[in-house]
Amino acid sequence: MNHWYMLTLVGKDRPGIVAKVTAALYDGGCNLGEASMMRLGGTFTIMLMVDFERSSKALIDLISPVAESLDLHLHLDRIEGRLHQHVEPDARVTVYGADRAGIVAKVTGALAEAGFNITDLESMVGGSEDKPIYVMQIEGTAAEGIESLQAAVDVIRKEGVEAHMEPIETLIG
Amino acid sequence: MAILEILTYPDARLKQESLPVEQFDDELRAFLADLEQTMLAGPGGVGIAAPQVGRFRRIVIVDCSRTRKPVPNHGRLFIVNPEITAWEGMTSGREGCMSVPDYTGNVIRAEKISLSYHDAHGKLQQLDAEGYEARAIQHEIDHLDGLLFLDRLVSRRNDLFRRKVYQPTPEQQPKT
Known about the structure:
- The complex is a heterodimer of chains A (about 170) and B (about 180).
- By secondary structure, chain A is of the alpha+beta class.
- Helices cover about 30% and strands about 45% of the residues of chain A.
- Chain A has two domains: about 5-80, 2-Layer Sandwich (Alpha-Beta Plaits), CATH 3.30.70.260; about 90-165, Alpha-Beta Plaits (2-Layer Sandwich).
- Chain A has helices at about 15-25, 55-70, 105-115, 145-155, and strands at about 5-10, 30-40, 45-50, 75-80, 90-100, 115-125, 130-140, 160-165, 170.
- In chain A, helix 1 runs antiparallel to helix 2 and helix 3 runs antiparallel to helix 4 (about 145-155).
- Chain B has one domain (about 10-170): Peptide Deformylase, CATH 3.90.45.10.
- Chain B is about 15% helix and about 35% strand.
- Chain B has two helices and six strands.
């Protein structure tokens, strides 16, 4: 009986991390599911669904040598999740402005209050060292409707950041 | 009428090119009725192409009168042997497909198109479509050339700001 695990690996970015990690998992009999892998501030981060028939200890033993060789911090959770559990987002909120503390908390607080359930959030700091700008893209489902979400976005805009919302009308053809 | 079986990727037949229709007869019209019923039986589908049910002819149906939020549309269209004769603008939007269950992705399409096609009786027709309906027509015509929206995916992330029409500079205007 196979189990799904969520494998998290974090460490200083360098070439070859993905290839070495996934080769070790494949050689050890794992099947990979969905993944998010991204370089954040010079650190490479991996969150990876792994389907494996043995125990979490066996999986850690399998991946530890390659993680250590690449100086990656490793974390493993057995998860209830499985594939084909996608939730289709129905709205996208984009926020940007001069970077300052509190943007994410204020924005997501207002969105949560409006019944917005985040499925995907990505944020980046761009601009220059002395004038950083914060850019955030959020997708999710507006449980209390698009109008309620739009009202929250209008409130967010009063906080001194640019914000806009657009419905995602997924075309099925 | 019958609900036809939808081919789903990785069925290799979805990648094949479809041939023009030559006979505009009752058999074609009966097929169109079945194809429409198959589209209506799907979850929220606004279009369907003949190769999605294993008939490799240049036939699509688009019906954007059924969207959750109303959009400009020409009602239910039986489109045979379509040719897109003009494109304008670019826009990104989320697409899914009855032949690709449980996956959606962002695709860039022309904002406005001009289309010439034959109707169910072989009469040549023309229309201009925009926005969601133009997207649906482009999605379905792609099926006739063995293309899925998966062939046109753009980053789900990094699609930073809403893209509206890019105006060509005077130098880029086509010479007349």
